Amino acid sequence: MRILDPWSITDVEDYNRLIEVFGIEVMSEDILKQLPFLNRYFRRKIVFGHRDFQVIVKAIKNSEEYAVMSGIKPSSIYHLGSKITAEQIVYLQQLSKKARVFYAIADIEAWEDNGIPFEKSLEYAVDNVADLITLGLDLKRAYIYLQSREPRVLRWGYLFARGLTRNLLESIYGEKHLGMYMTAMVQVGDILLPQHPDFGGPKPTIVPVGVDQDPHIRLTRDLARKYSGKFKFVPPASVYHKLQWSLKGPGHKMSKRDPMSCLTLNDSPEKASIKIRNAFTGGRETAELQKKLGGKPEVCAVYQLALYHIDDDEKVRQIFEECKQGLRLCGECKHEVAELFANFLRNYQHRKKTNIERARRIIEDLVAGY
Amino acid sequence: MRILDPWSITDVEDYNRLIEVFGIEVMSEDILKQLPFLNRYFRRKIVFGHRDFQVIVKAIKNSEEYAVMSGIKPSSIYHLGSKITAEQIVYLQQLSKKARVFYAIADIEAWEDNGIPFEKSLEYAVDNVADLITLGLDLKRAYIYLQSREPRVLRWGYLFARGLTRNLLESIYGEKHLGMYMTAMVQVGDILLPQHPDFGGPKPTIVPVGVDQDPHIRLTRDLARKYSGKFKFVPPASVYHKLQWSLKGPGHKMSKRDPMSCLTLNDSPEKASIKIRNAFTGGRETAELQKKLGGKPEVCAVYQLALYHIDDDEKVRQIFEECKQGLRLCGECKHEVAELFANFLRNYQHRKKTNIERARRIIEDLVAGY
After folding, report:
1. Of A158, A179, A281, B174, which one is least surrounded by beta carbons within 10 A?
2. Contact A65, A100 (CB under 8 A)
3. B chain contacts of residue A151, beta-carbon cutoff 8 Å
């Protein structure tokens, strides 16, 4: 594979296979040029594919209502993966005044998957919602809810479960305990909730997800079609972003179980710097070799961090070019990226502070209003 | 097996096995004599076993609160099996002023098992509730609800599903689609609902069921113990009645698919008479033989109908004795029982008419109040 430009770098994983096998459509230039503006992930081809995104593009153009649907499992603080999704939510909301965000606090999933009792999820939920606000969510056009306290979603979970066989479930999710299959049903309910009669009925819905979440999307689209006679569902659209690795480099998923390789939005700037300085890079064996051959940004966790999270295109291009040309060694590069990221965190955490109380009120209202 | 008296007649099925294998306790004379009064089913040993019923007896004696929990799948009108359970509910409510009935309209089960959409259940629900009222329910001490609109039950269904394996579920319910397993979880939620904090927390609960429902009871008791640390659940108690056959006789279950063998509370008295006159009896091949040897009430669907549903002990005893002594032939016996049952229906349906509107208001409030 040839690395053509700083933005195609994440093609090292075989996303083309997903496009061929599962029918995900390529995010084409034709679609991109119709959008009012592009965020970092769209600009840099980190968002590589979609299903039915043209339906959303049309809604934007025609100033028609659409929903942006997403959620968070409140089992931990936001890591960089959660940040990517959150920024996608915010971007998709900003594309039109007619967009409304639906955000599920997936406390049922936190229970089934991690054994966290519903009431224990609430602290994480406050922190997660504070992040979403700080990242730019417009609360006036957002419906935030707890899965366990949203009866429409709970009920639809039961509705959609009818007739789903063990074979189907195992082929999508593997062999799991009952609670995990029920969680999958709740997520179907989540994704279709914006189209519930109480929210004005059928409408285009866009779900921004990491590509690993596509099985949920496929199942939901199948069920939306199955129940289209009754509910007139518009099959939910999706956009897929490529997954950021952990700081250990290619093939390593971000995991809270390995905190040193996973940056969170609550890491102190100093702690984040240390993590970044310990990250896996695309450097050569020696400084001499690196100067001669250039580095390998395509396998470098530090370059990927910059690519995903540093907004300045020129800066990222500079890092890429200098690395490829052997003009930049890993030590100084780590130092610079760590500095940039620490500065982001410092500013971000300052702003987040003021949003914690707002988030707490939102969650308290959800519990009290029940 | 010797038939000792008119009330031991239903021992023809091996209920002793259930007692031995599954640990159901025998309904002893010692317990019966502690009850303020006995209804027909208790008097006639149709209620043959229980789990923890002594907990309820104690609550009655001490004038302490307890709950009577049951429900109906609103997929058809009440047949005689539903009537038995309903009369048990009413009886257990009448035993103490401190008893409160919880009655689930199992619309989720009607959907998962029979494909009846939630909103289509409502007509049956009205009819079912009208029957329950006509059979004597005191509405002032009753909480009637729709499963699909009781968020506490919906939520608990998800709660209790955590960790339940396919092996466990298949051993209890056989291989079923996901919706049926989820229905089982809803039923666990139903049975524990009276102990929800919103209803005053832990309390003795009695569930009157046909013995075929014991797997639900066992699973619920297991889960009540599993979550006892958090909710302090009192494991629900149960009383078991022997199942009435269809009019086809021993081994035949009442089924709506075979309406001629299944009496419902909406059958016209004339229709009911015809069904009874076509029932399977314990008669001998010829009238001569019958006069000589006597009939076999222990395998007679007509005698069982009298035993379960004709309240006059002396009349039932007379039928039994005359049959055994060859003094009563099947034709005249059917005629008499049909007459008695038709009279019951005539009177019953007259009273039920006035309860239909009350029931309709109850169901409408459930839907509107949501």
Report:
1. B174
2. yes
3. 149, 151, 154, 370
Question: Model confidence over A186-208: pLDDT tens digits?
Answer: 999 999 999 999 999 999 999 99
**In sequence order, which residues have a C-beta less than 8 Å from that of residue B166 and are 6 or more positions away?**
A166, A175, A177, A178
Q: Is B17 exposed, middle or buried (0-12, 13-18, 19+ CB in 10 A)?
A: exposed
Residue B298, SS3 per DSSP: helix
d(CA B248, CA B258): 10
Nearest C-alpha in A relative to B176: A165
Q: For the residues A309-317, what does the mean pLDDT come to? A: 97
ipTM of this complex prediction, to 2 decimal places: 0.89
Handedness of CA B39, B41, B43, B47 (dihedral sign): negative
Q: How far is B204 from chain A (nearest CA, A)?
A: 25
Q: Which residue of A107, A111, A120, A162 to mutate against B (max B Cβ within 10 Å)?
A: A162
Helices (H), chain B: 15-22, 29-32, 40-43, 53-61, 80-94, 107-114, 121-134, 151-161, 166-173, 178-192, 214-226, 228-231, 269-277, 287-293, 301-309, 313-324, 330-368
User: What is the rounded distance in angstroms from the CA atom of residue B263 to the CA atom of residue B275?
Assistant: 8
Structure tokens at A254: 């971000």
Class assignment of domain B259-350?
Answer: mainly alpha
Closest among A174, A191, A159 to B182, alpha carbons compared: A159
Choose the closest CB to A178 out of B112, B164, B175.
B164
A79: enclosing H helix or E strand: none
Cβ separation of A162 and B179 shorter than 8 Å? Answer: yes
Q: Does B58 touch chain A (CB under 8 A)?
A: no
Is A197 near chain B, with CB under 8 Å?
A: no
Count the Cβ atoms, other than its own, within 10 Å of residue A140: 6
Shortest alpha-carbon distance between residue A219 and chain B (Å): 14
- A13-243: CATH topology: Rossmann fold (3.40.50)
What pLDDT digit, counting tens, does each position of B87-125 carry? 999 999 999 999 999 999 999 999 999 999 999 999 999
Task: From A56, A6, A65, A337, select the one nearest A201 (Cα to Cα).
Answer: A65
Q: CATH assignment of B9-243, given 3.90.1300.10, 3.10.290.10, 3.40.50.620, 1.10.1200.30? A: 3.40.50.620
> In this structure, what token pair is assigned to residue B123?
């007509």
